[in-house]
Amino acid sequence: xxxxxGPSRVTDLLVLGAGAAGMFAALRxxxxxxxxxxxxxxxxxxxxxxxxxxxxxxxxxxxxxxxxVLDTPQHWLDDLRAFAGDSVNERIAMPVAHALPDxxxxxxxxxxxxxxxxxxxxxxxxxxxxxxAATPASGRALHDALRAAVLAEPRIRVVRDxxxxxxxxxxxxxxxxxxxxxxxxxxxxxxxxxTLVAGGGFGANPAMLAEFLPAMAGAVHGGPPTNDGxxxxxxxxxGGALGGMDGYQGQGHSNPxxxxxxxxxxxxxxxxxxxxxxxxFVREDVGPSELAAHVLxxxxxxxxxxxxxxxEAALGEHxxxxxxxxAGRVLAADDxxxxxxxxxxxxxxxxxxxDDAAAVAHGVRADPLGRARVARPLEPPYRxxxxxxxxxxxxxxxxxxxxxxxxxxxxxxxxxxxxxxxAAAGLAGRGGAGYLPGNGLAQAFGLAxxxxxxxxxxx
Length: 459
Ligand SMILES: Cc1cc2nc3c(=O)[nH]c(=O)nc-3n(C[C@H](O)[C@H](O)[C@H](O)COP(=O)(O)OP(=O)(O)OC[C@H]3O[C@@H](n4cnc5c(N)ncnc54)[C@H](O)[C@@H]3O)c2cc1C
Description:
Radius of gyration: 22 Å
Number of strands: 18
Distance between the termini: 27 Å
Number of helices: 15
Helix content: 25-40%
Bound molecules: flavin-adenine dinucleotide
Strand content: 15-25%
């Protein structure tokens, strides 16, 4: 790595944001022979990638093939369209789907991430197992590996923890950024013909939430404070159109303080949710994002997720659940009455909810709430945890084409300007229901991959 001293420099690519999309685009563009400046004023604050589950979907990867899973980008697209309907962002969906298997290979060969396929992580809406992850399977592991790769890449110059004093863009697309004197007393001036904005979403910006996503403005924000929408605002000020602004990734399994979460897999394994009265209120298989709004609509905006020790064991090394358990968010009881008393819900209603779910699991009757299946009846010893509906990450942002080029309101590319990740319009939107698990990192890596190719080719 070159340190961020030095008064002035011209670079091929300026990347604003060292998260999933920014680091990946920087590494790929550098691997294609271009010089990159990667700037992040919050370098030392954990970003969305770092707090994420780190599960990356890819359809048709060689790791799936090796595990005997037959899948194609088209199959993933079909699942996305079935799940998200006409809210799919068709400008980018196909290019991202096709980019992901190669992007995953580059995560391993070009970024030093030991990528592995997770055949046993069930995800609502995905017809086959598609998730890949680092080791351990967490966003933090992925983040740390990418940071190490960035710092080791001689073509990437990092400007860290320094807020820009001035950012300007010429009509030809050239962007100049000035940083005031750093700790060493040296100011810095960067000039770039191409710029990728990758500063994440706007979940931590109350004004933008009030304007674009009022339904989630009061929800717990499960993402980091770095999601201030600043690079979306920058691209907008430069003429970029905004799209999908009411789309979001919800998190229906977040513990009420927003610090820990249970992960999305419990309902697929057989968990149920009840409200404060002990009654089920939703078909739990809607997916973790759509679930958020249902939980928020419950009395107090909370629900009790009920499962058992066997389901807990099936989660294995799942890092998000392990953190919630270690933080004391999981109740354990040997019988329904004790569980109900620990949770403060009526025992009779909870018992009835468990009996009803068991009847569905045994095929005795269909679920009155429409749940497709209950994998198995819950048995003692029980587990339960209070959850709320949180906003994980916003999905709206700058409208791009499939190569990450930012488009204006007339759909014309703005010269030299690219976006990816939370700063760019996501794969699907309109509320939380269109977020197919994995859409966030799929778009961040897939669109960054495409943008890097276009940038390196001089497009
Ligand atoms: C709790 C949680 C769990 C998740 N789990 C998953 C999952 O398992 N799978 C999945 O696909 N998705 C998941 N997501 C979503 C996924 O993490 C995001 O979609 C993805 O990280 C977005 O990448 P990004 O690069 O846009 O944002 P980030 O990773 O947040 O990176 C943005 C970077 O830009 C920086 N920045 C901000 N403003 C500026 C500025 N003005 N100039 C320069 N830099 C700036 C920030 O400091 C940050 O480092 C999860 C999200 C959350 C909150």
